[in-house]
Each structure stands twice: as structure tokens, then as C-alpha cells.
Amino acid sequence: MTKLVTLTIDGMQVSVPEGTLVVDAAKKIGIEIPVFCYHPKMEPVGMCRMCLVEIGRPVIDRSTGQPVLEDDGSPKIQFSPNLETACTTPVGAGMVVLGATEKARSGREDIIEFLLTSHPLDCPICDKGGECPLQNLTIKYGSGQSRYLYDEKKHFVKHVSLGELIFLDRERCIQCGRCVRFQSEIVDDPVIGFFHRGRALEIVTYSNPGFDSYFSGNTTDICPVGALTTADFRFGARPWELNKAASICNHCPVGCNLTMNVRREAASGGDWVVKRVMPRQNESVNEIWVCDKGRFGYHFAASSSNDQTSFKRLSQPLVRKNAGSDHPGELVPASWDEALSVVSERFAEAGDGLLALAGGRLANEDLFNLKQLTTTLGGEAVLYTHMAGGELTTQLGIQPGSDIGTMGQGDAILVVACDLMEEAPIWWLRVKQAAERGSQLIILNSRSTKLDQAAAFVLRYPFGAETSAVLAMLNALSEKRLRLPEAVQVLERDPTLQAAAEVFSGANNALIMYGSDCIGLTESQALAQACANLLDATGHVGRPNNGLLGVWPRANDQGAWELGFQTQTKLEDALGAAAALYIVAADPAGDDPTYLGQSGFGGKAFVVVQDLYLTQTARLADVVLPAQSWIERDGSFTSGERRAQRFYPVIPPRTAPVSRAESPSTNKAPLLIAGDEVMESPLPDFAITAMITLRIDSEARITASSAARVFNQMAETVPAFSDQTYLELAQVHEQWPIVGRDDLYYGGTSYENTGGLGMQLALNTSDTPSTTRLAGTTVEFIRMPKLGQIAFPIARLYDRGKTLMPSQLLHERIGEPYIVLNVNDAEMLRIQDGDVVHMTVANREPDSPDRVTTGQTVVVQARLDQELPERVVLVPRSFGIPIDKPTPVEIRRTE
Amino acid sequence: MLAEKYTTEIQTILAKYPPEERRAAVMPLLYLVQRDQLYVDRHSMSEIAEILGISTTEVASVVGFYSLYYDQPGGKYRIQVCTDLPCALRGAEQFMEQLCQRLGIKPGETTSDGLFTVEPVMCLASCDKAPMFQVQSGGGLAYYEDQTVENALALIEQLRTEAASKGSAKRKDEYE
To answer: Residue B64 is nearest to which of A189, A191, A194, comparing CB atoms?
Structure first.
């Protein structure tokens, strides 16, 4: 236990841990000490002097070491003659702090006056106006009169683009340094800095390309003035015009808590519009931060059927009509009633020949109902993903009470086959901070990643040998050694590996985070199993802050695993063999033309696609059902840390002009009585699935009425959710630091969490973990071919996926499709950096890795890298290049 | 290219610091560049950043912070006059104004022959000997205290003659 220190602030006694700063101690008991430069997440610097207080300390008799007493027996307090900064002064026993005195007030008034001598009075056009600490504190502490010399006002540039996402207004900057400190102290990406001194000081970037940091948007939240604004929101709306709704980010498995600000706009025909995405505090998930993908990548969810771009949303069901033997017919708008009867009829016919393929961006409720449908019919529920091993995370994953934010001294985190910065930036931050607090960070990867800089042990394995590398760690700890391939023998003998294995084994708590860097479905299954074996062997299971954590490609893959979704290694075969396909939130045909197969997509199967857009797969479907995006409805996601979290409706569902030609049926589901307008509009995924199921079996245990009812049904049926209710997910408790109330000066504009902190799922203990499966078996690994290259898929945060491309603002960061080649290979192929090359993808299941059969060809830009081994090509996922596992390719220069 | 041109100098500088504190070498490396070209251009900042494993912005911040580093080209001799309060009380402001007038430039500007830039700076720790200034050139730094405009102009004339006689071909000798 840390020692508690008791002091008095403005007459109130408070006991806080030793080392706490006076400003924080005051905050804990609700006493306001205004600050600009201080931020509870960063080291104090005492630059702005706004937090001035009078501090008195007990007088100690030097000869006895005892406090000197006044005549009345109370300790004698000596006040320092000058005001002191509460943000740099740690508390002391018996200290007396006075912040409400005339002296302190007048000190603060002076500081405000200094700050305002050259601050522009452009509050009426400033984006920060209304939620501006400087504005608020000026009203509270500033002088009513200005002694401001207008003639001496300094003029600086007002629109400095620090990169295409963040703009700087130099006149408004009060030089608190929060942004600069955030970038260097918190996210270790010092691409903005101070230039010059005093009045001339300015925030600059000399980096190329500019303020290009995945966390840049957070600087606008903590900027205490309107100096930093985002390109997305600037001049967009006034803060007080905005409504707010709690949401969860849908881009990655971290599950960052968000608040979305919306308003109705004339410009959008009176529609509700998302104006900005802000972080919402959840100290166990994202603290008060959010990455730029989450902040700027929401447009896909908010797009409408009026959208003129290719991201036009589906507005009503489509049914294929007029198909003949020689022509495919066309998708024609239809009523829900018609579409649902066709679908339910054909699904009932298909019976256990139904294959439901779901994308991991769906909510728990959607996935649960899908699973209910396939259970009813006896069909198969498959998760559309390139990363497996999920069932192991439900058994050996992390459990309630886990929080990377509490890991530190004595703990260990092993990160395998994962580029956390690109796959889940906020986890990168949390793991880096755990390492800074003393956790032993061990990295096993085939290539260097940004996280290496924070690691205690960095271990490299040859490309394709990730599973062997984990087993090598296991070997280092056990007497019974598995025989491992030659490729990892160097690693196996590496004393660093031995040391890392011992640290991992001896840690109080240990996590393994595995990703899908350079691996596909089959490899990730083996890797997860190896990780599970290592955790089991070292006893790091079944306790908080221990276990296996999958860095999944999608926000709710974890939910799918918990609900029993499976992966399908030979998905193209399964798609071809099914009698009916129900494809929800996935676009296999758009991702990889291989899925089109010999006889067209899905072969002879009846294909239903349920999505936001008319995807490539949807174009080939027999029926297309329009779904609501997650911000148009409520529901819950399960984060990779197995935390179920609720999201709320942000904007009302888009309604579309209804074709009056179709007369509504009398046989309507209860939800649809709302009126014709809603009738043909998108519906929540869970509701659509439920309506289909109920048409097949009216007795089926499935509900379309609300996400809450689906969730509670799920809690009754699925053990992992058994401890939870929808209502409990919305519970909150006070978090530290206190942010988002009236005191925006303290924590910034991140929202306080009132929508729910979520709950972590219990471990599935019903199935015995299959941790011995790999023992004694030969470990497969990728053998490098003698000829040609092998393409390994990697993750890029900004990809060309359908959920990011609608965010125009990020296009420059996303860039064009590219591959990364080794310099020697490039030289041999006469390819130079930046050249356009043809990459031919080999047969997906080659009998021999050396044999390259012709497959699809893509035209991409080549980037050269000196560190990559020969024959290795890196290919970013979701860039329109159909590589989702190590694949032989042939590369040639485009003549 | 810095790394090629000053391979040994860079090695000597880096050797003075522990490898994990390589970033501490930023100031001597900046000085190396400035001695060579009298200011630090953006490209050199990037090169230094790469040598030290820090961001270009961090290097630029150091250039921005210290008045001895320049990120813009100026005169061959930089005359930095202290105009802080104690110096101002001893006439430094008038001194600089008159000096500039005699040279036909404004503070911060460079003489037409490209040799002299005069600029006001903060405290140079010689308050009792004001008016004073320091001259920075490729050859290093020199203090000139208890100055009058006439003194200063005489010095400028002397430097001008030296510059003319040496010529640019011999400039390298100055550093050694």
C-alpha cells in the first residue's frame, strides 16, 4: 500500500497517496484549481502558472524533528511569501493549501491577463467556443476590464496545416505545450515541437509528411484553446448545437468508447448528421484517447442512400427477377414482405445446407440471432475472417477483472505475430505504457514493428515460423522438448529467448497477444494453440490479467467466437457446396475473385446478402437486404479484452422514398407497423434474421423486437454472457481522472462516461482446453521457394476497406495499393522504388511451394526495403490485393 | 551529404556520448552544419535526425530554441546585439538603431554585400559592459564589449577587408 498523506485544501481535509500533486488532491474533493498546461495524464511542467495557490507547511523544530505548535496547540504553519503552482507541488503531511484567497485569485487574474495580451478575440468564429477552458476561466477569473493594447497585438498565421488532419491557429495558441508533450510523452511520436521562444514561440512540424500520427486528433481534445482543430470538424458546428450519443468504435477489437456529436442540418435536408467523434472515458479500455481511424473513419456508418459516391447506402430490399437460363436477370426493388418470404422459403428448403457467413463488424445480438437461425435449420455459422483461434480465447482468454492499465512491475506481456500500432493503436499505447510501468514486454515477430522500442526482449523468427518460435519458448521451459524445424534452431539457442521464456514463466501475471501479421487462417490457428500451450504450461490462465488475447481484424470477432462461430479453412469450397448462402456484413467476392469459383459466386446456391452497400457480392446475390449501420440502432460489441459494451442509436435510421407500387402485406411482423416510410428502409441485422427465422418456424426462440431482448436471451443461453444483463452493461462508476464535466480545463473535451463501462465475460469452463494437441506433432511452417516470392499479408491501420474509404479526409494517408520488396530481389527483377509492378497470385493451394501457377494479377506500386529477407514480399491487407495468407506470387516489372 | 562530408567529425562527436544517449549530440552536430554553411537547412536537420534516431521536428526545435542557430541564410557575420533591459539602460537600443542606420539596414536584415546581419538578442551575460554584441561566423564566436557605433563600424570594416583578401577559396582554413 502506498503511504497516505493528509493535508487541508481550502479548509477541507483530504488523504491522498504520497506523491500526489496538490492540483489532483483538490480535484478529488471537488475543489477547483484552474489549469491550462497541467494534464492529469502527463508529467507536470508548470508552464502556464494558472494553478497558483498559497501553500503553508508545518514548521518543524530542527533539533527535535517535531512540529512546532502554536499557543493553542495547533501546528504552526508557515506560508511561503509567493504563490506556488499546485500542479508541480506534491502534497505534504499537514500542508495547508489556500486557493480561494484574494491573493490566489489576483495571481490567477494576472495570469489570465498575460495570456490574453495577445490572444485574438475571435471566440464567435472559434471552434472551441463554448467548450473552451480559456474562455471559461476568463469569465471566472479574468478581469472584467481589459488593459489590452490593441496596437501591440501580435498577428500570426491563423490557418497552419500541420498535416491534412490537424490545423493550427498560431494566434490562439497559449503555449501550454500539451500537444507537444502528448506526442512525445504519451504516444512516443514527437512529430510536433516548439520553435523559437517567448512571444515568438510556435508549434511546428518539420517531419515529413507533417503531423502524421495515428493519435493526432487527441491533441485537439486536450488543447485548452482553439489553436488545434481537426480538418473534419473545424467550422463545422458550434459545440452547444450538438447532441451526443454514446457509441463504441467499430474499427478494431479494442472497443474504444466514443461519444458521437450530431445535429440536424439544413445542408442535409434536415437530416441528422454526425459532426464529430470524440473519445468517451473508459480507463480500462481507451482511457480518454481514441486513434485517428476511430475519430475520422465514421463516415461509412453515416452515409445515406442519397450519397452520390460509390458508397451509396442500400435503401430497400432487392430481389432478383427475370432470370433465365441465358441471362442473370436483375435486382429489382421489393417490399420487405416479398423479400422475406422469398428468403425464408428458400432457406427452409436448404435446411442444413444453409451457410451463414458473418463479418466481425456485426453486433453480439446480430451474431446471436444468426446462430439461432442456423441452429434452427441445422446449418453452419461461419465467421468471415483470416484469423482463427478464437475458441481458445473463450477458454484461456482474459477474464473479468483484467485491465492492461493495471499491469506493471512483475508482469509480462508477450506479443506474437502482431503489429499492434497498425492493428490496434490504442492497445499499442496501453502495452507500451504497461512496459513503462515495469511490465516485461517480449516481442516475437518476423519483422520490426514500432512496439519493439518499448520491449525488454525482441526476438525474431524466420517468416512463417511463428508457431515454432512460440514452441521454442515452451521448449526453453520444459524438459520434454518438442522437435522444432531447422528454421528456428538459431532462435532456440538464443540466450535471449531463454531469458525471455524465464521472465514470462516467472511473471506474476502474463498475457499473450497474438495477431495475424504475415499469417493466415491455418497458421493463426496453430499459433493460437501454441500460445495456449505456453500459457497453460506456465500457469498463466484462469486469473485476471492472464491469458490469451486475439488481436482480431474486426471489432466484434470476439463476440462471434463467444457465440460459437467457426472458421472455414476452405471457404471457397464451402461456399460452392452450400444450398443457400446468407452473407451478412461480408464481401468475399469483392475481396477475392477466387470466391467467384468456376460456376459463379456460390455455385448453384441461393444467395442472400445483407449489408450496408451494394457490394460486389451483393450484385451477384438473389436477394439483397439493407441493414442499418451500428450508429442507427443499439446493441453491443465484445472487445478483444472480452468486454461486452453497449452502443446507442446516434442518428435515426435513414428512411428512403418508398415505391408505392408495392402494396404492404397484411401479414406484417409487429416491428414493421410503424408506417410505410420505415417499411422499406434498412433494419437492424438482428431483426432481419429474426424475421426470416420466425417465418420458417414461428415457434423459434428468437426475437426481432429489440436488442435488449436479444441480449437477455443470449445471456440465458450462452454461458459466457450468463452473468450479464443489457442493463448492467450501462452501469458506470466514478473514474480517475475526472473528465468531461464543467471542468474541461482539466482533462480536455473527452466525454465523461455515462453510457456504461461494459462488463468482461466469464471464461468458458465447460469445454476442456485442448492444450496438448500440438505436443509431439511436427510443426508446419512455410518453406521459402527456390523461385519466385512468397507474399505475406500485413495490416495497415489506414486501409482501402469499405468501412474506411468513405472517409475522404483519410485518402491521402491511405494511399494507393503497394507491396514491399527486398532490395536484392528488386535488383534482380530490375525494379526500382516506386515502380509499378505486376504481381501474379499463384494457385491458392499449391502442391509444392516452388510451383507457381498463374492466378490473378494485380498492378501495384513496389516499395523497397533493406531489412526484408530475400523472397519475402509484404502485402497490406484490405488494399484490393487478394492475399490473406502466405501465398506464392510472381512479380514482374510493368514494361 | 553530411554523413559523407564529415564522417570522421561525426564519429568524433558521437563518441563523446553513450550510445543510448546519442540524441545528446544534436547540438554539436548542428554546430558542425552551421560552421559549414552558416545556417541549418531543412535537409541537414533531417540528416541529423536520422543520425541520432530522433525526429526532424525535435532537431528543428533545438534550432528554434537557441538564438545561435539559424534556419535561414543570412550574412557571413552575424552581429547579435543584446538589447535586454540592463543593456537597454546603458544605451544598447540606440546603439543598435544607429549601427543599423549607418549600415543602411533594419534590425534582422543583411547588408547588401551579404556580409553582415545585425539582430537583437536576449541576455548575453555581459550587462555591465553594454552596449555589447557577439559576432558569429564560420570561425566561431567573439564578444565585443563597451562598444560605440564608431568602434563597431571599425570592426566591421576590418572584417570586410579580411573577407575580401581571404576570398571564398580560403574559407575552409578559418575553421581549422
So the answer is: A194
The domain spans of chain A are: 4-141, 150-302, 318-382+574-628+683-705, 390-553, 784-893
A14-18, A390-394, B1-5 — which is least confidently predicted?
A: B1-5
User: A737-763 pLDDT, tens per residue?
Assistant: 999 988 899 999 999 999 999 999 999
CATH 3.30.70.20 fits A150-302, yes or no: yes
Q: Report the relative pairing of strands A330-333 and A318-321 from DSSP bridges.
A: antiparallel
Residues belonging to chain B with any Cβ–Cβ distance to chain A shorter than 8 Å: 42, 45-46, 54-61, 63-65
Asked if pLDDT for residue A825 goes beyond 70, the answer is yes
A620-635 pLDDT tens trace: 999 999 999 999 999 9
Residue ranges of alpha helices (H) inside A510-610 are: 521-537, 557-562, 571-577, 588-591
Tell me the per-residue pLDDT of A237-271, one tens digit each, with 9 for 90 and over: 999 999 999 999 999 999 999 999 999 998 888 88
- ipTM of model: 0.87
CATH architecture of B2-65: Orthogonal Bundle (1.10)
Measure in Å the smallest separation between the Cα of B21 and chain A Cα atoms.
14
- pLDDT value at A510 more than 90: yes
C-alpha cell at A543: 486469473
Please give the pLDDT value at position A104. 96
CA–CA gap between residue A562 and residue A839 (Å, rounded) = 38
A676: pLDDT strictly greater than 70: no
From the candidate CATH numbers 3.90.1300.10, 3.90.950.20, 3.10.129.10, 3.40.228.10, the one assigned to the domain spanning A390-553: 3.40.228.10
Whether pTM > 0.90 for this model: the answer is yes
Check CB contact under 8 Å for A206 and B65: no
* Alpha carbon of A180: minimum distance to chain B alpha carbons (Å): 10
For chain B, where do the domains classified as CATH 3.40.30.10 start and end?
Answer: 77-175
Nearest CB partner across the interface for B57, out of A196, A197, A206? A206
Report the alpha-carbon distance of residue A740 to residue A132 in Å, rounded. 12
- Contacting B with CB below 8 Å, chain A residues are 184, 189-197, 204-208
- DSSP helix/strand/coil, A545: coil
Superfamily of domain B77-175 in CATH is: Glutaredoxin (3.40.30.10)
Whether A677 has a pLDDT exceeding 60, the answer reads no
> What secondary structure does DSSP assign to A277-341, as a single string?
EEEB-BTTTTBT---HHHHH--HHHH--TT--STTPBP-S-EEEES--SS---EEEE--HHHHHH
Nearest chain B CA: its distance from A436 CA (Å): 17
CA dihedral for A316, A319, A322, A326, sign (positive or negative): positive
Residue range A462-473, pLDDT digits in tens: 999 999 999 999
Residue A778 scores a pLDDT above 80? no
CB atoms within 10 A of CB A412: 27
- Interchain proximity B60–A193, CB inside 8 Å: yes
Of A189, A194, A208, the CB nearest to B61: A194
CATH of segment(s) A784-893: 2.40.40.20
- Report the chain A residue with the minimal C-alpha distance to residue B66: A196
Contact A702, A694 (CB under 8 A): yes
CATH 3.10.20.740 assigned to A4-141? yes
Q: Look up the CATH architecture of domain A318-382+574-628+683-705.
A: 3-Layer(aba) Sandwich (3.40)
Nine cell digits for residue A100: 480561494
| In chain B, ranges of CATH 1.10.10.1590 domains | 2-65
Whether residues A208 and B56 touch (CB distance < 8 A) is answered with: yes
A193, B58: Cβ pair inside 8 Å? yes
pLDDT exceeds cutoff 80 at A606 = yes
Angle at A691 between CA A699 and CA A640, to 5 degrees: 100
